Amino acid sequence: MCGRVLHADPSNAKALFRRGVAWRLLGELERARADLQAALGAEQAESDGGVDAPEQASHEQGGRLHEIKAELGLVRQLQKAELDREKDLYKRMLRQHT
Questions:
Q1: 32 Cβ contact list (under 8 Å, min separation 6)
Q2: Angle at Cα 40 formed by Cα 28 and Cα 38, nearest 5°?
Q3: Does residue 95 contact residue 45 with C-beta atoms inside 8 Å?
Q4: Comparing 22-26, 31-35, 39-43, 92-96, which segment has the lowest mean pLDDT?
Q5: CB of 18 closer than 8 Å to CB of 12
Q6: How does 20-32 read in b/e, with b if 16+ C-beta sit within 10 Å?
Q7: pLDDT tens, position by position, 31-87
Q8: 67 touches 18 (CB < 8 A)
Q9: Are residues 40 and 69 in contact, defined by beta-carbon separation less than 8 angstroms?
Q10: pTM of the predicted structure, to 2 decimals
């Protein structure tokens, strides 16, 4: 479903966010990060353009921004943990050969 929405509107923040979450759940962290960063940019652009937006709409956008940032933070943590595991693996491999 996200693919159809993004085909029609490549900067749809909600679809980018949902696809980013799906990529994270599939373990595709780099793709997740790319979609979530795009969602963040799209949401920020939308909130910047919505100066005359009612207070509730502005509050909802703030909630979405928080949600996107939280998910992006989680992906970054997972990427760091993955990198740390790889470093540890390589260290152990090198120790065995020396």
A1: 20, 21, 23, 24, 75
A2: 55
A3: no
A4: 92-96
A5: no
A6: bbebbeeeebebb
A7: 999 999 999 999 999 887 754 555 555 666 788 999 999 999 999 999 999 999 999
A8: no
A9: yes
A10: 0.80
